[in-house]
Each structure stands twice: as C-alpha cells, then as structure tokens.
Design brief:
- This is Glycosyltransferase.
- It holds the Pfam family Glyco_trans_1_4.
- GO terms for molecular function: glycosyltransferase activity.
- It comes from Eiseniibacteriota bacterium.
- 40% of the residues lie in helices and 16% in strands.
- It is an alpha/beta fold and 437 residues long.
- The chain has two domains: 238 residues, Glycogen Phosphorylase B (Rossmann fold), CATH 3.40.50; 177 residues, Glycogen Phosphorylase B (Rossmann fold).
- α5 links the parallel β5 and β6.
- α5 packs across α7.
- The longest helix has 18 residues.
- The chain starts with a strand and ends in a 7-residue tail after the last helix.
Length: 437
Amino acid sequence: MNKRLLVLAYFFPPLAGGGVHRVLSFTRYLPAHGWDCTVVCAGEDDYWVRDDSLSLRVSAGTEVIRVRGGSALSALLKTGRGGATGRRSGGAFAPLRSLADFFLLPDSYAGWSARARDAAAARLAAGGVDALLTTSPPDSVHLAGAALAERFHVPWVADFRDPWIGLHFRTPPTAWHRARHRAMERTVLERADLVLTASRTHADRIVAEGRATRALEHLPNGFEPHSAPDAAAAPNAAPAAGAMFHVVFTGTLSLMPDAFTLLEALREWFARAPEARERVRVTLAGPYDTSYESRAAALGLAGVVRFPGALAHAESRALQRGADVLLLWKPPGEGYATMVPGKLYEYLDAARPVVALLPSGDEAAGLVRRAGGLVTPQGDASALARELETRYMAWKADGRATDARPDWLDEHARPVLAARLAARLDGLTGGNPWSSR
C-alpha cells in the first residue's frame, strides 16, 4: 500500500506558468514509487494565467483540495488581469507589488497560505498522511508548513523552486523588513527535515553562507518526456518549418528587459539587411505584459514579431521543436544568479539551437554551453543582432540546423527526478525523524 504525501502548492492546474510543472510532475510520477499525493492548492481562477489542458495530466488518484480566494495582490488586480489570454498591463502591477512588499510578509499570498494551512490541518487530522511537502514561491507556504510539521509531527520537505523572493529577487523596503525575511527564511531552513533547491547555485550558497539545514539536496526542475511532436497539436505554431526563419521564446514575459534587447536587435539587423524582414518571424509565446507588444509596434516590428499569449503546454513544446533558434533569458541582477529557468531543459530536449542572453558565469549559462548552445551578454542588442544574422545566413545557405540532444539530459527527466524524491521521502519515513525533538 502506498504512503501519502501532502503537498502545499499555490500553483496547480488549471493554473499555468513555470511553477506548475514541477509540482504536477511530482504528483504524476511519485505513485509509481510508492507515494500517492494530496495537493492543497489555489482555486481554478486565482491566477492571471491558466492552461486547462494541464488538468488532463493530473492523475486520477491525486486528491486535490482547493482553497479559493487567491493572493491579496491578485484580488487588487482582478478586474485588469490577463486571465486565460495571458495578457496584462504591467504598469499598474509594479506600484501595487511595492505596497504588498511593505505591508504583507513574507508575501502577498500570506492570507491564502494561512487558509491553506487550516485546510491542510483538517486533512492531516483525518489521518493517512505520511509526509508533508511545501513548495515556493510563494514563500509563505513554508511558514504554513513549519506550523503544520510542529503540530502534527509529520516529516516536512521544504522545496525552493526559487530562493526566498523577498530577500534575493526584491530589495526589502526597510532594514526591519530585511531582518524579518531573514528570520523567516532561517526558521524554514532549520526546521525542515529536508530542503530541496531547483538550482545547484542556490544549494551551494546556502552551504557557503553557513545557513543551517538538517538535509539539503539539489533537485533540478527537469523536463517532461514527450513522444514525437504532433503538428496538429500546435495550431498557433506558425510559420511552418522551412518557410521562414523562425526565432522562438516560450515563457512568461514580465520583468524581462532582454525582450526589449531582442526587439532592438531586430531593428538593428533589419536596418542593414532589410530583405531579411520578409523571411524572419519571431514568436514570443506565453503570458506577457503589453509593454513588449507596444515597443515592437513602435519599432515597426508588428509584422515580424507575434505575441500569441498563453498557449497550451503542448503548443509551446511544438513551437520549441519547430524553431530555428530558441532564445533564453531571465531578469538581470545578482539576485537572479541562482535561477535556472525551467524551460531550459525543455529547450535542450527539443534539440534546437539555443542562444541565451545570460551572465557568463551563470549556472544556466553553463548548462547552455555544456549542451552546445551559445551565450551572449545580457543587454547587448548589437551582439544578438550579429548572432541572429549569422544563423539566418547559414539557414539560407544550408537549411535548418539541429543541435544534438545531450545524453546527460536524461538524468533530468521528471520521472527520474520523482524517483529521487521518493527515495528521500522513504528515508524520512522509514524511522522516526521526530524522536530527537
């Protein structure tokens, strides 16, 4: 008989975005290794991006408990958010987020996490749960997990898809806020029976900074294995392979200044080679802030660059496999050095040429180079323009290029990663990890 893992995760299908796939894969593949899953998650409409097709991947045996209401920030933005189209105005979002950073600790999901904690407590009290896993962002779910683990004496895994956001990705508004964030992060790291990080850089920094953990492991995001692509599954994946030189980015376009770098690179390239405009198409697929679309129009690129919005995950994967160049970037700054975008593993699985705008010593940059891709400096439109032009000229002369799929990528398939997690859960529940407390 399988054991049961209770998961606290705000993002779960039909909600979409990069944070959904890691948790979804846990619930899909852990049962084969002796662990059934119960997920306490947000309501079906509690985020500005959703993908109903992902709900079809939720295993029939997964128990789902929805805590509706969303975050305080999403409530403020409810009338103007993108919904299923994944299109929103980013201008109103920034000041509201600044207010949330000041008044809501550790994040704007704190109210939801408290209600999710109560729902999880009721499920734990009902019995049959052997371990607890909380996954962030939002970081507030870990505080809920700490309270639950202490109350119910259940082994607890704290999974960090990203480092503690209020410290590493945003500047705390005051010294008091910084101290509070540090204390809350320390509570989670010290009390969790196992801490997981999605990047090796994050795990290494925890060790280097002397932050105490009972056990720490790097468990990458990985990718979902797929069979051969089906063109019929991607009606939005235009143009057809071979008809145009197709440059593709998939993922959320928010707080991504290198999207503007791409637009400037295209303007520069077409200024010196106007004939290329007729044979180049760029698809930036995923939920996006409208400022990128407005900038493309202002630069005269509306006929070249398309923003299809949020797509079903299968459509995004088909776009990746049909691309002549896949673009990768992430927000700039030291705080983001620990971030390895989950889509990178999908890009490498697609076996298409990757051009990444990343810091040279970045972990993600190292993975791109290890797989044979190219890394170019962030913010350098001229360097990107030259690289795209070089690849376009090679495409015109020799046809579609293909990068070899790296053999080491198989270690990052999500079924393999779930097996690793199951082994750690078995170790936590094989004895009584609470006997020393």
